[in-house]
Design the sequence.
């Protein structure tokens, strides 16, 4: 196994652990926003979509599949972040006194 | 300089994405978390555009513009009660994007070995999550019936299809597979998504949506391995971990195992137990009676469930809360982890109605307080308040953690009819002497109570 792959596996395992730690601390109050935020984050696949679409040697098939992927991932990113913010804006505490 | 800029941008993206999840842990810092996430995503996109491999931009620009043009209205026009549907739909978009990239890579680069293995996983999870999420969306939107759809030999069919897919995947990874192998594998992946969701009923949606969230993350991480891109691996892994934890929390809250949710064991329970709805007498009350009791209590705990969401009653509930608080009544909310159709669903609805989040309490926090509560008002919740879960070992929901509303002085249940809830079992809470049934639509009934309240002494 090449060191590149080995390193990637290390990164993956550590990121999983980090994710488990971080998410366990999230208040159940915010589980819906958490889900819509991580959902936007999963659209990081836009990176792969851009690479496959814009590469010098991209075939027509790659371009069509790639641009569709860029579009879908962008929908996911934009709507994911906006709706999360829209939800979080609603979480308010009563002003000072009860 | 530009040569290395993307690496710096990716590092920035990874850090900000980690921070964004960290900051989401409390409502005070959560919006900062969203901003961090946006910066991270922007850095990732700009960094990628500046990589020297990327030479043509027209197509990419078109995708980014069209995507934003659809995404913005989607986020602003969706009503808050539709958040579960929107989430399901976004999972579909994200996962489909991953699958399409996998397909494009397969035809353009045809990698080998470990990278091909990652590509196959990416494609499988991508297509599977895409169709599963679309079907989940359709069920949530009630385009498709929400009841579990099962047939004889379902698991056998699923397993044999899965075996075929595994063989095809192995062949593709080993190399030398015929041209039809990869498309067939992709088609099977799409089919799996449908088969996965068919047996899932409405009440299991919180677990399933969380699971699909996790799969979407895994698909992105797999893409990271296929492209040897660590930013994708980190972001995908974080998302996968998050979805996984949420689905575990949901499963625990229902006292069920993963396999139980996925293989739809509840489908059978439903028919057997539903007939048991007995003709025992229940005490019902009018809105006027309910208002009088509420007005004369010191402490009220409201238990919202999916019924409140369906009736869109959250704003009326808030009016009720305001009036009671004005009268000096202590009003709190008890939120069961699986109330609603996705994790945290009730919290979002109540927040939308401007109810302060320090009134919203988790199950462990509020349960000890029921014995000191004058009135527990259950609005559109059923199985999560069924005391049978505590003592009736024959009950299908035995062992499920519940809200102990039966310990309150008086229990009032707003419900359309005596029909059993999602689990299809009768609720003994309704036949207690201390329980008053308020029959009617949640929104209409709460409105009535609000109207009667000023008249109550």
Sequence:
């Amino acid at each position: 196994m090449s060191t590149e792959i080995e390193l990637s596996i290390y990164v993956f395992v550590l990121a999983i652990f980090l994710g488990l730690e971080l998410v366990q601390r999230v208040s159940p109050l915010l589980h819906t926003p958490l889900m819509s935020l991580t959902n936007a984050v999963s659209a990081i696949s836009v990176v792969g979509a851009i690479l496959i679409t814009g590469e010098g040697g991209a075939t027509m098939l790659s371009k069509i599949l790639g641009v569709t992927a860029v579009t879908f991932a962008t929908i996911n990113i934009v709507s994911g972040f906006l709706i999360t913010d829209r939800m979080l804006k609603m979480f308010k505490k009563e002003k000072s006194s009860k | 300089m530009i040569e290395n800029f993307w690496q710096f941008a990716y590092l920035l993206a990874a850090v900000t994405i980690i921070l964004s999840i960290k900051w989401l842990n409390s409502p005070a810092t959560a919006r900062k978390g969203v901003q961090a996430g946006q910066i991270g995503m922007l850095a990732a996109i700009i960094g990628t555009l500046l990589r020297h491999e990327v030479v043509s931009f027209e197509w990419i620009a078109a995708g980014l513009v069209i995507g934003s043009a659809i995404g913005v209205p989607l986020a602003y026009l969706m009503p808050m009660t539709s958040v579960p549907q929107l989430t399901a739909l976004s999972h579909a978009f994200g996962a489909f994007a991953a699958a399409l990239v996998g397909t494009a890579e397969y035809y353009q680069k045809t990698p080998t070995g470990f990278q091909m293995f990652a590509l196959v996983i990416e494609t499988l999870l991508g297509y599977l999550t895409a169709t599963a999420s679309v079907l989940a969306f359709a069920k949530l939107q009630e385009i498709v019936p929400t009841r579990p759809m099962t047939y004889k030999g379902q698991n056998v069919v699923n397993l044999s299809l899965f075996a075929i897919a595994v063989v095809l995947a192995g062949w593709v990874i080993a190399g030398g597979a015929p041209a039809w192998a990869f498309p067939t594998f992709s088609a099977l992946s799409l089919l799996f998504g449908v088969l996965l969701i068919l047996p899932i009923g409405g009440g299991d949606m919180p677990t399933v949506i969380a699971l699909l969230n996790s799969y979407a993350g895994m698909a992105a991480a797999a893409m990271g391995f296929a492209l040897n891109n660590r930013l994708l691996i980190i972001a995908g892994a974080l998302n996968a971990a998050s979805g996984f934890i949420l689905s575990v929390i949901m499963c625990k809250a229902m006292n069920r195992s993963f396999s139980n949710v996925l293989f739809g064991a509840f489908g059978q329970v439903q028919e057997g137990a539903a007939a048991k709805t007995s003709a025992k007498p229940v005490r019902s009350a009018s809105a006027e009676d309910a208002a009088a009791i509420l007005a004369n209590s010191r402490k009220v705990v409201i238990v919202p469930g999916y019924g409140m969401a369906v009736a869109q009653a959250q704003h009326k509930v808030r009016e009720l809360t305001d009036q009671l608080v004005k009268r000096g009544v202590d009003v709190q909310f008890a939120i069961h982890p699986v109330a609603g159709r996705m994790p945290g669903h009730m919290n979002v609805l109540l927040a939308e109605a401007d109810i302060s989040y320090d009134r919203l309490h988790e199950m462990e926090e509020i349960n000890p307080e029921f014995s000191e509560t004058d009135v527990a008002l259950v609005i559109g919740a059923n199985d999560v308040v069924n005391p049978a879960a505590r003592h009736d070992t024959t009950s299908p929901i035995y062992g499920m953690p519940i809200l102990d509303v039966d310990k309150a002085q008086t229990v009032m249940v707003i419900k359309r009819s005596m029909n059993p809830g999602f689990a299809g079992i009768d609720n003994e809470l309704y036949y207690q002497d201390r329980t008053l049934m308020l029959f009617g639509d949640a929104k209409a009934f709460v409105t009535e109570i609000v109207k009667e309240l000023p008249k109550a002494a």
Summary: Chain A touches chain B through 84 residues (CB under 8 Å). Residues 28-90 of chain A form one domain.
